[in-house]
Write a structure and sequence with these properties.
alpha/beta, four-stranded parallel beta sheet, 11 helices, binds D-glutamic acid
Length: 268
């Protein structure tokens, strides 16, 4: 059976695993959450590079067919170097701004991501390619990563935080919101209650899984039409590691709760 490694600073990349489990039914996965070092999005580039390298080393020695960096922040900083160092397919993630502009060209696009992703050269380069008309606005919302790690998605404090970050923006002029960090999918219910109906969510999860399939010789045709089956039933195909240690039973039950949340928000 093909083995695929997926890593993130924490539980954000579970959104990629969630999709990959139903899209690729005959693969086994290692999910690596670097929970001792989360959040990455507020660290220096050197630190993120080193941490990504450590995780890569761990996964590489376990005979993976491909590795997904299910973290926009680590991709932004480290993907080039990792690809140069390791001879296997490495799939990265970047905020799905191109997809947002292609699908919803009529209004502006708002992107939320970590500070490192927002400020990075990779973002500047991406905007040069896809935003020649300057229709994209970027906002860093790093606190969402901490809330997600604490398993809190919908309370008043988070709402206040988001309203504070969006202050001064006329939300009515946006046709899309790009979830530029894998930790942010959990907040779709709350975001839906804040944003006008006309704002559509766009994320890079599906595109990443399709790219993973292409790179491992699978046909991604039809994946975008397929709804994820409740993920819990797939848990036996995944080994979970938290910063190098096998996840404990209590960690696994928390992961099940995250999967429940992802099942719930998938169609928003
Ligand atoms: N989930 C990560 C991302 O997609 C970063 C979260 C963090 O550790 O700051 O950017």
């Amino acid at each position: 059976m093909m083995k695929i490694g997926i890593f993130d600073s924490g539980i954000g990349g579970l959104s990629v695993l969630h999709k990959a489990l139903s899209a690729i039914p005959d693969a086994e996965f290692i999910y690596y959450a670097d929970t001792e070092n989360v959040p990455y999005g507020e660290k220096s580039r050197e630190e993120i590079e080193q941490l990504s390298e450590n995780v890569m080393q761990f996964l590489f020695t376990r005979d993976m067919e491909a590795i997904v960096v299910a973290c926009n922040t680590a991709t932004s900083v480290a993907i080039k170097k990792l690809r140069a160092e390791y001879a296997l397919p490495i799939i990265g993630m970047e905020p799905a701004i191109k997809k947002a502009r292609d699908e919803y060209p009529e209004g502006r696009t708002l992107v939320i991501a970590t500070p490192v992703t927002v400020m990075g050269d990779k973002m500047r380069y991406l905007l040069e390619q896809v935003d020649s008309k300057h229709l994209v606005d970027l906002i860093a919302t790093p606190k969402l990563v901490r809330y997600a790690e604490a398993g809190v998605f919908e309370d008043e404090e988070i709402k206040e935080y988001l309203l504070g970050q969006f202050k001064g923006l006329d939300l009515g002029i946006y046709s899309s919101l790009v979830l530029g960090c894998t930790h942010f999918n959990y907040f779709k219910t709350l975001l839906r209650s804040i944003l006008p109906e006309s704002v559509h969510f766009v994320d890079g999860v599906e595109g990443t899984v399709m790219q993973l399939m292409r790179k491992t010789g699978l046909d991604p045709e039809g994946v975008h039409r397929k709804r994820c089956a409740p993920t819990k039933k797939y848990m036996d195909r995944v080994s979970f590691f938290y910063s190098g240690w096998e996840a404990l039973p209590e960690d696994l039950s928390k992961i099940e709760c995250y999967f429940d949340k992802l099942d719930e928000v998938e169609k928003l």
